[in-house]
Amino acid sequence: MIYLDTHVAVWLYLGDLSKFSENAKRAINQYDLKISPVVVLELTYLFEIGRLRTEADIMLNFLNEAVGLEICNASFQEIVRSAVRQTWTRDPFDRLIAGHAAFQNAGLLTKDEVIRRNYLLSVW
Length: 124
Hints:
Elements: E1 2-4, H1 6-14, H2 22-30, E2 33-35, H3 37-48, H4 56-67, E3 70-71, H5 76-84, H6 92-103, E4 107-109, H7 113-118, E5 122-123
Parallel strand pairs: 1-2, 1-4, 2-3, 4-5
Helix pairs in contact: 1-4, 5-6
């Protein structure tokens, strides 16, 4: 299982594989894909401010059908407890997304260099 950062879910939805490294493409094909519910919140926020043209539910339903993407239903309290330990960022979305992956002791597929420097199980 590997978790996807928000931008990875967007690029998958758009079918823009040119943005992915070969290692990232292998991970997508090799692992079960999950996202934190926080990614749903961030996608909704990006839609509301006009940075995305498609609503989160439409994207996620498509990705569920296309690649089997699932939203993890782990305890939010446990995710927050794990996110509190991610002191390397002040971005609440990044902190919760990395905290969620850390709580599950799972990889996180991300191109974000800050996350990759600080979350040892990140993949790109």
